[in-house]
């Protein structure tokens, strides 16, 4: 007991603290912590910290005496949250380096600012006055420095804990593209983003969410590119959150998503920094959550989720091919089983006669109707898939043997299921793996079962009803004010061709998506397009640029182009303002466009 | 409540889909009278008449860009008379929608699911369309955005593949029997332009109400050309007599296509796309009906009216006709001519009269409450 017992007595004598009754609940305790302030006595302060933290294991209190007058002080920190290198340096400075100062103060009150300004070598030192703040800093890895005779304390940034190394993403694999993926530390994740956008306009807003977890959440955006309306909406949704925990960005997603009852994700989650940066550059906003390698991007659209990073890094023709392939795959994976049931049950005439006869022959002797067959096989596959995710890697191969051989082969040779059903299930499974976004993939998996039922009841017409309900639902969804099917409904033909149906050349994609990047629609000068889009060889043009008169002509032409671009912008503004698809943004958007137009006209005047 | 707006482009798509779906289902140009091989001339007549009708309807609408036809009627004719008149228009939405649904259900039952009770299919259709209407006009507009390309592709592929099989000698003799059968053949289709009454309700929801007339004009032009194509191809494949006798001539014609050795009987896919298009029309009808009713009786939100209306709709669909032949006998010039006159000419004639009289008296009814230019 020793010192501690003595302190406790001292403390108790001063005022009655409800903590000792052991009756206070967590919310009461939290409120009490908020009320406490530091006192002028070092022993009291140390006792206070000990009481409130329950003298927990790992709470380290290093007491010392400083200077010729032996000013008592203490450094409080949590083992494991602090970097011992930095801490050693701080203590070294306090105890040894401080001896070099001739004007070392004699009281704690003066010592505190002196230490802050002259002695402590840490990167960041903050002055704090109450217990809540003290714990806030300390439990984040700061070291608290207390001196006798002052009711202030110093929080020294000594954070340093083990984080996972930055490694490749498992969930989002790309053949070509950066290999780095986010990890669990928010600082590392923000650094990964910052390293890729080196302008001061990359703004990061800090939020603390969760009453007990006090999780750091960072709202990242490019100021002046992300819509103010979207940001405001995001801030207000974040501020409204009242919960005790945010363990993962999934917890956060649940609070801020637009359609909680929909199977479709309205926020894009990604592990890839390049993906986040690409989104930020289009005017999207990112939410980085501490403790989660998944960053949320919004406003996200359906097509965003079907894009993979490879699309942009491969050559455009290959990228377009892969993209169309992926669209087909997700259509296949959602509708194929339903279609199969519908056609076999109701419309066999669609099949060529020989094919249908073949299928009918294999179904000979199968005891179940085709719906049951398909549902069973689909469920088996889903179970296999789920088991595959949970299995330790060492017994992974076992499941594929059991799944493929025992279930597939044996079920067919026993005549319980027909081979075409197995083909359908396998095809569906393969196609569903082509969905780049896991959350969207799950939506497809769920909907598949619905379509099998509809196909079994109504045939193709049931599937038609299903598709219609699906279209109606998806059309009604919005993500932070942006329609979920953005460029296809409402139809924005330019965006659709440029980055959704096809993937154009990077130099050709000179404009941002209209509803997201409306504040600065132009990505680069449209000159790029003219320069690169040449069917004939480039030699002629170079000759021209050598010629002075020619180059002047060209300049004027370009100025003309710019004027045209400006007037085009004007038109677009009118149409969008009236379009009303994004009423929230209207104000800011027209204001901004005016100014950008002004700039452009100025520019062109100068040039001509 | 958020103000719903949808783009003029979407109105264009909706009108095209709406006009074409009904016209190609049972092809009244061909089946309703004895125009026979001259049905294409009826289609041209339909185009002219359609342009006239759309001018009458949208022309009045764009003079009151913030008011629906219900409110215009109440304004021009007074509360009581206006409401009565608008009820006539609102009834047409429900009735036209029920004809559409019945045709669709009959086609499914006759062609594909003979043992399914019709009430089941009708109810499903009604539920789906009402869901869309419940989501609002903005969503219907976006649905149209998605479905229109599919619909158009289906139609063009069908017309294109029929082109190679068609026997164009079937179109002869050209106009040998004079103009009277041609007129007779077009009456039903012209009366079906009562569908365009939806424009009167939709104009204030548009992003650019003043350009509504233009969108509607293009819609009529495009849809009439598509109908013309379908009519010519159907006559070319089936011949005038068989075409006129068949219930769903276009789909019957499609049965004859063989894209290759192993792709036959693809008419189900055409019907699939056609059905998708049909729903766009249906949900627009039911939305307009509910919206108009809500305005006529000063109900704050059209959604309150929507569900009872959907139920009524399903009942009308099932009980109005006993079978597909009753629809066929309803879609004859004798009935539909009157129908068209009473739904389009009478209400809009009165409204225009009232409008012009007021203008002559020196008032500008549109200028009040900032509705006009």
Q: Describe it for me?
A:
The complex is a heterodimer of chains A (608) and B (373). With 608 residues, chain A is of the alpha+beta class. Chain A has helices at residues 2-14, 26-35, 42-53, 84-95, 108-119, 131-138, 186-194, 228-240, 249-256, 273-281, 302-306, 309-313, 316-345, 353-363, 370-390, 396-413, 419-432, 438-458, 460-476, 493-501, 527-532, 539-546, 548-579, 586-607, and strands at 59-66, 71-78, 125-128, 143-147, 153-156, 202-209, 215-222, 268-270, 285-289, 295-298, 478-479, 482-483. In chain A, a hairpin with a 5-residue loop joins strand 6 (202-209) and strand 7. In chain A, helix 13 runs parallel beside helix 18 (438-458), helix 15 (370-390) runs antiparallel to helix 18 and helix 23 packs antiparallel against helix 24 (586-607). Chain B is an all-alpha fold. Chain B has a single domain (8-367), classed as Amino acid/polyamine transporter I, CATH 1.20.1740. Chain B has helices spanning 8-26, 28-31, 39-61, 69-77, 79-111, 118-135, 137-165, 180-191, 197-202, 212-238, 240-245, 249-255, 267-296, 302-320, 324-330, 333-360. In chain B, helix 1 packs across helix 7 (137-165), helix 5 (79-111) runs antiparallel to helix 13 (267-296) and helix 6 (118-135) runs antiparallel to helix 14. The longest helix of chain B is centred in the N-terminal third of the chain and has 33 residues, at 79-111.
